Amino acid sequence: MSKSSTYAAIIESIFRAWFRPGMREVEFAREDIVRFGNEHKVALPKNLGDLVYSFRYRKDLPQSIRSTAGEGQAWIIRPAGRGRYRFVLVKDVPLLPNENMAVTKIPDATPGIILRYSFNDEQALLAKVRYNRLIDIFTGITCYSLQNHLRTTVPTIGQVEIDELYVGVDKRGVHYVFPVQAKGGADKLSIVQVEQDASVCSHRFPALICRPVAAQFMRDGVIVLFEFENGEDGVVIASERHYRLVPQEDVTADDLIVYGNRVP
């Protein structure tokens, strides 16, 4: 049995064991992964958390689980404390880039040696965002990278990792914290991670204004930045911009005229 099939069989068994019609939340423990993996007589992943991570950020849940959600709804997996998780039924709002969004050219300031030795798409994306000050440009606030791959623990959630954390200050002297979620390759932006990032900031930086951000690669090297806020139905996209890093001579006078006429 392939790794993908193994993960699907285990998560299906966990869901079926605890789900009853009408339920909107289904809680389970990390020990359930071991239990149902043994029942299926499959080799368990060395890192049990990878199974849950894959369905939160990389893969769709099996059809047998998705079919129990009503129209316009979807199951997601949220942390529920140390070693515990919870299937939660939410409004199905995919976090996808707007294909018709205008692209802004930015002179590329990424050091070549950084690009040469980046290990993966996510690391390269974070580096490009950092060296080109895209968080500053996107938010209009002076920002500084405080820490990347921050691992911490939040009560009621458990361990959380933020891809990169920025702090910033505006012209009034107000301080902000920007948790940044970065996705390259086939990974998907996740409502769950946005919620977790915001929870970390509320817990660790209660005096700062939290503005969750996500960055994602699109085709042709375009970098998409999203900012999120809590709406009536949960996390929603508050703003979105698309940037392309180019040699400085590729930003033409005509480009600058177009940018100058845009609504801020």
Q: What does it look like?
A:
- There is one protein chain.
- The protein has helices at 3-18, 30-39, 49-58, 63-66, 112-117, 121-131, 134-139, 191-204, 253-260, and strands spanning 25-29, 73-79, 84-91, 103-107, 142-154, 158-169, 175-183, 209-210, 213-217, 223-231, 234-246.
- By secondary structure, it is an alpha/beta fold.
- The chain folds into 2 domains: 3-91; 103-260.
- The strands form 2 sheets. Strands 4, 5, 6, 7, 8, 9, 10 and 11 form an 8-stranded mixed β-sheet that branches. Strands 1-3-2 form a 3-stranded antiparallel β-sheet.
- The longest helix is centred in the N-terminal third of the chain and has 16 residues, at 3-18.
- The chain is elongated, with a radius of gyration of 20 Å.
- The relative contact order is 0.13.
Labels describing this entry:
alpha/beta; 8-stranded mixed sheet; 3-stranded antiparallel sheet; elongated; 264 residues
How does the major sheet shape up? 8 strands, mixed
> Count the strands?
11
**Model regions low in confidence, pLDDT < 50 over at least 5 residues:** none
| Percent of residues in beta strands | 25-35%
SSE sequence, one letter per element: HEHHHEEEHHHEEEHEEEEH
Spatial separation of the terminal alpha carbons: 53 Å
Total discrete domains: 2
Overall geometry: elongated
Number of helices: 9
Write down the Rg.
20 Å
Structural class: alpha/beta
Average pLDDT, rounded to a whole number, is: 89
Percent range of helical residues: 25-40%
